[in-house]
Design brief:
With about 180 residues, the protein is of the alpha+beta class. It is built from five helices and eight strands, in the order E-E-H-H-E-E-E-H-E-H-E-E-H. Strands 1-2-3-4-5 form a five-stranded antiparallel sheet. A hairpin with an 8-residue loop joins strand 4 and strand 5. It starts with 10 loop residues before the first strand and ends with a helix.
């Protein structure tokens, strides 16, 4: 029998800590997935299925070497949601994704964490491109993708999740030249 050992790095921003997903996230995620707010990220699901989702997040790190982080607010330690890098079977390309709890919406946390995840993807993993797949009706996430500098780049129909839009993030070179212009 072989075993897989892997490390999930922690990232820190001004207000957030991105760390390994944990069973401690289960209560907040289960509450979120019991509401209509989960409509665009797989929909409502029972606690048992939410547990499997968290296990999938950890397994994704083992299989791909990257994945979703659990995100905590530094000041309070409160769970914000999960943000990170995602490329499961059936996805068109590697993605930067986010999902925040209701209390954390509208505070810029998803933007801050997604920027940190993208910096990790480009700087550490040497990605040259990334997308965000966003449900066609998810106007708030589309606005966030645009705020991150992503532009719509076609669509994608997932066999289970349905129609979504592909938002392509600026390349590392584009981001560097934008910073040079500032």
């Amino acid at each position: 029998m072989t075993s897989t050992t892997f490390t999930i790095p922690s990232l820190e921003t001004d207000r957030l800590i991105l760390r390994a997903p944990s069973v401690n996230d289960l209560d907040a995620e289960a509450e979120f997935h019991s509401t209509d707010r989960a409509e665009f990220v797989g929909g409502k699901m029972p606690r048992e299925q939410v547990f499997k989702m968290l296990a999938t997040f950890l397994g994704h790190w083992a299989i791909r070497g990257f994945g979703f982080w659990g995100v905590d607010e530094k000041f309070s330690g409160r769970y914000v949601g999960h943000v990170g890098l995602w490329y499961p079977q059936g996805w068109p390309e590697r993605e930067i994704g986010w999902s925040v709890m209701g209390w954390a919406e509208g505070k810029g946390f998803a933007f801050e964490a997604a920027k940190a995840a993208r910096e990790y993807a480009y700087g550490t993993l040497n990605w040259t491109t990334a997308i965000s797949l966003i449900a066609t009706q998810n106007i708030r996430s589309q606005a966030l993708a645009k705020r991150l500098g992503a532009t719509q780049d076609g669509g994608f129909k997932h066999e289970r999740l349905g129609d979504s839009l592909i938002f392509r993030h600026p390349s590392p070179e584009m981001l560097a030249s934008q910073q040079g212009d500032a």
